[in-house]
C-alpha cells in the first residue's frame, strides 16, 4: 500500500481503479517528411487513422447524453471533414509525413473557421481536438482527453481544463485526483459541482499505473493504493451517509428561525435547471463567461439574451444574480483578453476589460435587459473585479442606462473589502468572491498546488476582510439596505458557512451539490451560536486553528461525514 498526499478539495471516500488522462499530444516537428514508405501507403495510413478516430468518437457519442453527446457527435463529424483530409493529403503527396500533414491542415481549417466567425468559429476547438486525436492514433498513443470507459474509474490527470468538463460523465468518474491545481482551481470547482471527491496537488500521481485500485479521501486529501478492509468500510460508510443526507428542502433556517437563502452558482441554463431541481432558491452567481468559453468572437446580443433567458426561466419566481463577463486569468476569452500579458491575474480582467475593449459590457447589459424583459425573475447584475468606488459608480451608471434596476459588485479584490462602505454607497449589494479574495490577499495564485495552504478561505486575513465588508455594508445602510452574499467556494464548506452567517453574511451561493450539507449544518445551530463560532474563527491565529476550533463546535459534521 502506498499513500499519496495532496490537498482535499471536495469531500467523499471512494474506491476504484485509476485511469490516467493522457497528456496533450505534442506537435510533430515542422518539416517532418515521410520516408521508408510510399505515398499511397502514407495516404492510406492517414485515412485509416481518421476513420478509426471517427469510429471511436461515434461509438462514445452513442452511449453519451446531453452536452457530452453533442460534443462527441460534432467532433466525430470533424474527423472525416473532407476539407481537413484533402488539405492533409495534398501535403502528404508533397512529401510531408502524415502526422505533420494533419497537424498543418488542422491549423489551416481552424484559421478559416475562426475567420468565418459566429457558429463556424465555435467549431475551431473541434478541429484542433480532432487533429490531436488523429496524430495520437498515427503514433499508436492513447487518445487525448477524458479516457473512454464502460466501467467506473478514478480519473487521474495533471489538471483538467474547462473544455474537458463537457465529456466528463459523473456516472463513470468516481473521483478526481490531479497533480496540480489548488482549492479554487477549475478541477476543484468542477468536482464540488458534480459532488465528486477530489484531491489536487498530489505529488507523484502520474506514476500510478492504469488499473491500480485506489482509495480516495477527498476530505483528508489522500490517495492510497491497494486499499484494505479499513478503507473499504470507510467507503461503504461514506456512500451510506451521502444517501442519508438526502436533498435540500428549499428552505434553510437556523434553530432559532433565522432564514439564510441558499442560492446556486451556475454557468448555463442546464446547470440552472439542475440547481432548481436541487432546491436552490435562486442563482447567486451566473458565471456568464462559462456560456462562451471556447468562443473566439463576442457572442451577439440575441445569442447572449437567449442563454441568460434559459437561466431566468429555471427560476421564474426566484432571484438570479448575473455576473458580467469575468474574462482573464483562469478564464481567458480571446475576444476580450490579451494572452501575452505577463501577469494575467493582476491584469486586464473582469470589469477592467471595459477599459481595454469598451462596448462589450454595454452590449452584455443590453442582452441581460432583453432577457429579463417579460421574465418574472428578480434580476440582479454584478461586476467582477471591482477595486474602487469609482468603478462601482460607473458600473451602476451603465446598469441604469440599460434599464437594469439592481446593480452590485463582487468583493474579491482586497481594496473592495477595505473600502466596502464607499463602494456600497454606489450599488445595492455585494457578493464576496472568496476564491479571488483569498488569492489576492494572500498573494497566492489560486491555480498553484504548492500554495494551497495559503489559498485557504479560513485564513485570518480573509475572515477579517469578510467582516470588514459586512461592516461597510451596514455603514452604507442609510442609502438603502445593502445585502452581502458569499458566492465563492467558501460558502460550500458547511463549517465555514456557519462562520459566514455568524459574521453577518445574508445569503450563500454554492454548487447545487453542496446545498443539502450546508443547510443541514446551519439547521443545527442558532444565530447566536453561529456568531460565537465566528468569533472563535476570527480569534484563531491560523487557518488550521480556525477550522479545527469551529469544526469541534459542530458535531453534526462528523455524523454526516462532512
Ligand atoms: C466566485 C468567484 O468567482 P470565480 O471563481 O468565477 O473567479 C470568486 O472569485 O470567489
Ligand atoms: Mg472571482
Automatic annotation (TrEMBL):
<dbReference type="GO" id="GO:0046872">
    <property type="term" value="F:metal ion binding"/>
</dbReference>
<keyword id="KW-0598">Phosphotransferase system</keyword>
<dbReference type="Pfam" id="PF05524">
    <property type="entry name" value="PEP-utilisers_N"/>
</dbReference>
<keyword id="KW-0418">Kinase</keyword>
<keyword id="KW-0808">Transferase</keyword>
<feature type="binding site">
    <location>
        <position position="287"/>
    </location>
    <ligand>
        <name>phosphoenolpyruvate</name>
    </ligand>
</feature>
<dbReference type="InterPro" id="IPR008731">
    <property type="entry name" value="PTS_EIN"/>
</dbReference>
<feature type="active site" description="Proton donor">
    <location>
        <position position="487"/>
    </location>
</feature>
<protein>
    <recommendedName>
        <fullName>Phosphoenolpyruvate-protein phosphotransferase</fullName>
        <ecNumber>2.7.3.9</ecNumber>
    </recommendedName>
</protein>
<feature type="domain" description="PEP-utilising enzyme mobile">
    <location>
        <begin position="152"/>
        <end position="221"/>
    </location>
</feature>
<dbReference type="InterPro" id="IPR015813">
    <property type="entry name" value="Pyrv/PenolPyrv_kinase-like_dom"/>
</dbReference>
<keyword id="KW-0460">Magnesium</keyword>
<keyword id="KW-0479">Metal-binding</keyword>
<dbReference type="InterPro" id="IPR036618">
    <property type="entry name" value="PtsI_HPr-bd_sf"/>
</dbReference>
<dbReference type="GO" id="GO:0005737">
    <property type="term" value="C:cytoplasm"/>
</dbReference>
<feature type="domain" description="PEP-utilising enzyme C-terminal">
    <location>
        <begin position="253"/>
        <end position="525"/>
    </location>
</feature>
<feature type="domain" description="Phosphotransferase system enzyme I N-terminal">
    <location>
        <begin position="6"/>
        <end position="123"/>
    </location>
</feature>
<comment type="similarity">
    <text>Belongs to the PEP-utilizing enzyme family.</text>
</comment>
<feature type="binding site">
    <location>
        <position position="436"/>
    </location>
    <ligand>
        <name>Mg(2+)</name>
    </ligand>
</feature>
<dbReference type="InterPro" id="IPR006318">
    <property type="entry name" value="PTS_EI-like"/>
</dbReference>
<feature type="binding site">
    <location>
        <position position="446"/>
    </location>
    <ligand>
        <name>phosphoenolpyruvate</name>
    </ligand>
</feature>
<keyword id="KW-0762">Sugar transport</keyword>
<dbReference type="InterPro" id="IPR000121">
    <property type="entry name" value="PEP_util_C"/>
</dbReference>
<comment type="function">
    <text>General (non sugar-specific) component of the phosphoenolpyruvate-dependent sugar phosphotransferase system (sugar PTS). This major carbohydrate active-transport system catalyzes the phosphorylation of incoming sugar substrates concomitantly with their translocation across the cell membrane. Enzyme I transfers the phosphoryl group from phosphoenolpyruvate (PEP) to the phosphoryl carrier protein (HPr).</text>
</comment>
<dbReference type="GO" id="GO:0009401">
    <property type="term" value="P:phosphoenolpyruvate-dependent sugar phosphotransferase system"/>
</dbReference>
<keyword id="KW-0813">Transport</keyword>
<keyword id="KW-0963">Cytoplasm</keyword>
<dbReference type="GO" id="GO:0008965">
    <property type="term" value="F:phosphoenolpyruvate-protein phosphotransferase activity"/>
</dbReference>
<dbReference type="Pfam" id="PF02896">
    <property type="entry name" value="PEP-utilizers_C"/>
</dbReference>
<dbReference type="InterPro" id="IPR040442">
    <property type="entry name" value="Pyrv_kinase-like_dom_sf"/>
</dbReference>
<feature type="binding site">
    <location>
        <position position="412"/>
    </location>
    <ligand>
        <name>Mg(2+)</name>
    </ligand>
</feature>
<feature type="active site" description="Tele-phosphohistidine intermediate">
    <location>
        <position position="186"/>
    </location>
</feature>
<feature type="binding site">
    <location>
        <begin position="435"/>
        <end position="436"/>
    </location>
    <ligand>
        <name>phosphoenolpyruvate</name>
    </ligand>
</feature>
<dbReference type="Pfam" id="PF00391">
    <property type="entry name" value="PEP-utilizers"/>
</dbReference>
<dbReference type="InterPro" id="IPR008279">
    <property type="entry name" value="PEP-util_enz_mobile_dom"/>
</dbReference>
<dbReference type="InterPro" id="IPR036637">
    <property type="entry name" value="Phosphohistidine_dom_sf"/>
</dbReference>
<dbReference type="InterPro" id="IPR050499">
    <property type="entry name" value="PEP-utilizing_PTS_enzyme"/>
</dbReference>
<feature type="binding site">
    <location>
        <position position="323"/>
    </location>
    <ligand>
        <name>phosphoenolpyruvate</name>
    </ligand>
</feature>
<dbReference type="InterPro" id="IPR024692">
    <property type="entry name" value="PTS_EI"/>
</dbReference>
<dbReference type="GO" id="GO:0016301">
    <property type="term" value="F:kinase activity"/>
</dbReference>
Amino acid at each position: 500500500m502506498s499513500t499519496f498526499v495532496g490537498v482535499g478539495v471536495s469531500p467523499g471516500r471512494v474506491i476504484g481503479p485509476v485511469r490516467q488522462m493522457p497528456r496533450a499530444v505534442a506537435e510533430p516537428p515542422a518539416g517532418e517528411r515521410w520516408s521508408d514508405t510510399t505515398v499511397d501507403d502514407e495516404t492510406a495510413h492517414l485515412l485509416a487513422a481518421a476513420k478509426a478516430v471517427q469510429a471511436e468518437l461515434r461509438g462514445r457519442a452513442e452511449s453519451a447524453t446531453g452536452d457530452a453527446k453533442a460534443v462527441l457527435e460534432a467532433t466525430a463529424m470533424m474527423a472525416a471533414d473532407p476539407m481537413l483530409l484533402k488539405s492533409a493529403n495534398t501535403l502528404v503527396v508533397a512529401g510531408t509525413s502524415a502526422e505533420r500533414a494533419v497537424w498543418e491542415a488542422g491549423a489551416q481549417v481552424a484559421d478559416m473557421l475562426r475567420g468565418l466567425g459566429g457558429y463556424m468559429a465555435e467549431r475551431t476547438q473541434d478541429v484542433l481536438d480532432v487533429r490531436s486525436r488523429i496524430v495520437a492514433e498515427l503514433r499508436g498513443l492513447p487518445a487525448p482527453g477524458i479516457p473512454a470507459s464502460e466501467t467506473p474509474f478514478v480519473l487521474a490527470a495533471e489538471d483538467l481544463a474547462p473544455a474537458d468538463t463537457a465529456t466528463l460523465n459523473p456516472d463513470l468518474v468516481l473521483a478526481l485526483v490531479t497533480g496540480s491545481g489548488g482549492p479554487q482551481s477549475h478541477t476543484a470547482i468542477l468536482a464540488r459541482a458534480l459532488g465528486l471527491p477530489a484531491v489536487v496537488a498530489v505529488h507523484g500521481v502520474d506514476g500510478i499505473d492504469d488499473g491500480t485500485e485506489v482509495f480516495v479521501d477527498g476530505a483528508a486529501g489522500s490517495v492510497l493504493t491497494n486499499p484494505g478492509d479499513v478503507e473499504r468500510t470507510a467507503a461503504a460508510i461514506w456512500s451510506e451517509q451521502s444517501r442519508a443526507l438526502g436533498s435540500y428542502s428549499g428552505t434553510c433556517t437556523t434553530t432559532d428561525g433565522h432564514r439564510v437563502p441558499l442560492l446556486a452558482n451556475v454557468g448555463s441554463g442546464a446547470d440552472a435547471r439542475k440547481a432548481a431541481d436541487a432546491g436552490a432558491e435562486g442563482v447567486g452567481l451566473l458565471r456568464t463567461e462559462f456560456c462562451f468559453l471556447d468562443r473566439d468572437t463576442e457572442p451577439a446580443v440575441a445569442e447572449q439574451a437567449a442563454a441568460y433567458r434559459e437561466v431566468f426561466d429555471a427560476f421564474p419566481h426566484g432571484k438570479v444574480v448575473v455576473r458580467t463577463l469575468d474574462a482573464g486569468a483562469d478564464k481567458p476569452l480571446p475576444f476580450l483578453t490579451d494572452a501575452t500579458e505577463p501577469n494575467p491575474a493582476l491584469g486586464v480582467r473582469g470589469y477592467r476589460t471595459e477599459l481595454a475593449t469598451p462596448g462589450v459590457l454595454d452590449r452584455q447589459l443590453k442582452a441581460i435587459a432583453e432577457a429579463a424583459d417579460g421574465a418574472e425573475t428578480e434580476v440582479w447584475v454584478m461586476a467582477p473585479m471591482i477595486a474602487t468606488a469609482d468603478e462601482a459608480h460607473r458600473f451602476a451608471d451603465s446598469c441604469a442606462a440599460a434599464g437594469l434596476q439592481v446593480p452590485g459588485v463582487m468583493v474579491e479584490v482586497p481594496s473592495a473589502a477595505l473600502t466596502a462602505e464607499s463602494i456600497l454607497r454606489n450599488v445595492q449589494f455585494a457578493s464576496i468572491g472568496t476564491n479571488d479574495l483569498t488569492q489576492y490577499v494572500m498573494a497566492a495564485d489560486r491555480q498553484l498546488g504548492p500554495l494551497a495552504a495559503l489559498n485557504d478561505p479560513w485564513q485570518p486575513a480573509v475572515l477579517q476582510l469578510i467582516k470588514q465588508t459586512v461592516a461597510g455594508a451596514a455603514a452604507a445602510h442609510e442609502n438603502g439596505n445593502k445585502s452581502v452574499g458569499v458566492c465563492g467556494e467558501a460558502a460550500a464548506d458547511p463549517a465555514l458557512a456557519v462562520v459566514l452567517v455568524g459574521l453577518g453574511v445574508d445569503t450563500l451561493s454554492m454548487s447545487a451539490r453542496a446545498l443539502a450539507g450546508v443547510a443541514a449544518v446551519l439547521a443545527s445551530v442558532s444565530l447566536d451560536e453561529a456568531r460565537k463560532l465566528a468569533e472563535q474563527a476570527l480569534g484563531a491565529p491560523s487557518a488550521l486553528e480556525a477550522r479545527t476550533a469551529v469544526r469541534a463546535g459542530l458535531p453534526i459534521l462528523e455524523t454526516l461525514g462532512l
